[in-house]
Amino acid sequence: MTDAASLPYRRNVGAMLFNDRGQVLIGRRTDMPGAGGPPSEGTWQCPQGGIDDGEAPEQAVLRELHEEIGTDRARIVAAHPRWLTYDLPPALLGKALGGRYRGQTQQWFALRFTGTDADIRLDAHLPAEFDAWQWVDLATLPDRNVGFKRPIYQTLAQDFAPYAHPAD
């Protein structure tokens, strides 16, 4: 068994992408139970991913959007004032994240989507991270199946609420 205390946190960015109606994009993970089933099943999350060496978080979040949902048609409107950290559940420790990390410390960004739904292409980079996506109301996000990341989404739903409004 891996000792969590001996492992570092992985630096990561998260993208809370708001459409012109003030809804946020979530995708269903392909590597979790329920993928490929009805939209009510599976584990859902916002796009997120690691920060490459020498990469600024602002660059990383736009790169991750392109890699995970096939578009970088977005502009950053805010960065969360704190890095948010989560620990992996014991069953995933030593397995997830290449087995090298105890969890992730994340810089989250609120972004305004500047494209159309046709710009979202889950198959742009393979293997695909998500097999489905949808726009949801921010306030409902923590109540969806976001797995062990629920506390992060509760914080984001509160702190990014000012951006959950129709575009000007």
Task: Spell out the key features of this protein.
five-stranded mixed sheet; 2 helices; alpha+beta
Briefly, what is this?
This protein is of the alpha+beta class and 168 residues long.
Question: How would you characterize this protein structure?
Answer:
It is an enzyme of class 3 (hydrolase). Its cofactor is Mn(2+); Mg(2+); a divalent metal cation. Its EC number is 3.6.1.-. A motif (Nudix box) lies at residues 49-70. Residues 8-158 form the Nudix hydrolase domain. The relative contact order is 0.28. Strands 1, 4, 5, 6 and 7 form a 5-stranded mixed beta sheet that branches. Strands 3-2-8 form a 3-stranded antiparallel beta sheet, with no helix packed on it. It has 168 residues and is an alpha+beta fold. It has 2 helices and 8 strands. The model has no long low-confidence stretch (mean pLDDT 93). The chain has a single domain (4-161), classed as Nucleoside Triphosphate Pyrophosphohydrolase. Helices cover 14% and strands 29% of the residues. It is globular, with a radius of gyration of 15 Å.
